[in-house]
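Chapter summary example.
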Amino acid sequence: MNNEVLKAMKTRRSIRKYKPEQITDEQLDAILEAGTYAATGMGKQSPVIVVVQKPELIAKLSKMNAAVMGSSNDPFYGAPTVLIVLADPEIGTYHEDGSLVMGNLMLAAHAVGVDSCWIHRAKEEFESAEGKELLKEWGLPENLVGIGHCILGYRDCEYPEAKERKANYIVRV
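The structure predicted for these 173 residues follows.
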């Protein structure tokens, strides 16, 4: 079966080294729109996508994220765009909803020629006093939970090969 969506799913890889060049507004808009079309429990659309392209704010978020790991390395690998997916924990499916948004963002990025990677620790970042202050500054409810960061940019490395799929990935019963 030759389907573009299935092809994108099979060929997308996480990238961990980026050029400083910013993605285009057209690419960003297409990626964001795809994120808004992720399935959500009962159509509640609990996730929120925060777009960060200001280098000083990305640096602040990078430092916060690295601190969660006890590291000083850049967990965003120099990506010029960071999308933060947050969701309302009052919605029973908030974590699943946010995860589906993250998947859509990464697949859409691949489809429009942008590289991506899911970066964890958003939960810990936005549970902190500093994270709560950012939510307040952005006009968002302080109860939102961080699901993940989708970093975006153009890779500055070789494109990774897919690992072989494990033999027992699928069990037919």
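To summarize the output: The mean pLDDT is 96.
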